[in-house]
Request: fold
Amino acid sequence: MKREKVSTAVIRRLPRYYRNLEDLSRAGTVRISSGALSAAMGITASQIRQDLSCFGEFGLQGYGYNVENLRREIGEILGVNRGHRAILLGAGNLGRALMENFHFDRSGFSLAAAFDVDPAIVNTTLAGVPVLDVAELEAYLRKERVDVAVLTVPSSLAQSITDRLVRAGIRGIWNFTNMELTAPATTAVENVHFADSLLTLGYMISDSDKE
Amino acid sequence: MKREKVSTAVIRRLPRYYRNLEDLSRAGTVRISSGALSAAMGITASQIRQDLSCFGEFGLQGYGYNVENLRREIGEILGVNRGHRAILLGAGNLGRALMENFHFDRSGFSLAAAFDVDPAIVNTTLAGVPVLDVAELEAYLRKERVDVAVLTVPSSLAQSITDRLVRAGIRGIWNFTNMELTAPATTAVENVHFADSLLTLGYMISDSDKE
Reply:
């Protein structure tokens, strides 16, 4: 399969394709035209054709896309079949919301353990996931293969926990704190900054005031 | 103040500037060079100068930026002083995590009410916010000014609640469900898609495997 250098903008859209194709596949849809995919996703049909052409020839003129093949190919590109393993740091409200409701498996991850300081939950199980004492973090990481840490600790602890994870060789951090983390380039950091998102929405509705 | 047409990429960075300037301001920092702001934010100094020049002349050669002035100006652009009012739909784990821990006020919003179907919490107060029956949604929106709805309902209800909000004239939806919502262009939708974010992180660490 041809594989050109892919822009960040295309990479950022791939998860949306993957998620929509998963929904279509689960709903039993076998094939879809770029027009129908466009309508479902709110991306123009020509943008879709251009994006997907980066990864080879998926569509057939007059047929459209085979949903399951395209889902599998994009999943392969995203690495969903690599059996990524995650741990979660900080089993407070947000941490528990993710543990109980978020489908890590649909993004190609399994959640192996959670870490907290609260004696009321340490050494229990939440949503089927063992909760360990954060003091055991380094020992755990020496023993188990872990690719990514989900960071749902209080902001005041974010950098010190990050430093510990980096020293232990973690490869990725999914950061839900509102802190800008300092980490070496060898550790990928993906931020979910709620405040930035709400500020953007505030701008969008303020901007429409002016028109 | 001069105000050019601003690109989406710049708009997306403004909340990060605002958040970092807030942190600096709270820490008592009076002025900062673009170099130091660059180091704190992980954006190049020339990018910072270019971004901020879209909104007028903030920096002074040899002085840098006045933190509080710049924070106030960017806050003004983002609309944080407009007293936006939000409601939250679905006070489950994630909804409660936001109600209890997220500082709506720092993004210029107040959370006026939450709506749920669970009789155990309807007509109680969570984190100081009244929880009402979702059956009262339309009546509430006729009576109260609400700018934005925070959508933390189960995915299966996301579109039907969106339709009700749109009919009631809501101007913005902060969507935490994993659904692509259908809404008219007059309703701004800002998505927080956890799965897309984790898939991107999975791609980043998979990509580094190949190198």
User: Anything to note?
Assistant: DSSP finds eight helices and nine strands in chain B. Chain B touches chain A through 60 residues (CB under 8 Å).
